[in-house]
Amino acid sequence: MPESQSPTTAPTGRRERKKAATRQAIADAALRLFLERGYDDVGIREIADEADVSTTTLFKHFPVKEALVFDEEADQEARLLAAVRERPAGQSIPAALCEHALRYRMAATGTDARFTAFFELINTTPALRDYVQAMWLRHTGALARAIAQECGLPEDDPGCTALAHFALEAPRVARGHDDPRQAVTRAFDLLEHGWQPTPSKRTRSSGR
Length: 208
Prior knowledge:
Layout: H1 14-37, H2 44-51, H3 55-61, H4 73-85, H5 93-105, H6 113-123, H7 126-151, H8 158-174, H9 180-193
């Protein structure tokens, strides 16, 4: 899933820089071809040729075809876990995750044509939908474990799993709202403080 970009530490060694550049070239070529012709109509050999690499090199960077669409998956998870583990003293976990969502994931809720095309590609490709589901399950599990460790709770604590799940879903819920940032903030406010009905809504009386 795309995220807005933030400056990161570039690879320092010549070999690392070359490796990162090759990986990016492969991912860019793959996404360009997928968007032009559709995921199922593009072969691995075509992607390798477009990126000017061998198929062996391609598979060293991306073990399965679906991973070509989600080349930043590992970095996204690392930033997500860092938001919890490296949050300032006194900041709650929901607040840290809200800050992370607003900083890194809000581009995916905007109206940029690139993101619209990206989501359309995923939504119309069963293999990519399945990959996204598996990816989010992995991220949820990793985040839940990080939250549990921070709280001194068992790794399978259901509350930590629920918080991880809804924290990851919040930016997707905001997609399509007139004010996505406000929608994300509202969702995390719910995670922080629990359900609070809006004042304008009349609470249904018991027995009515």
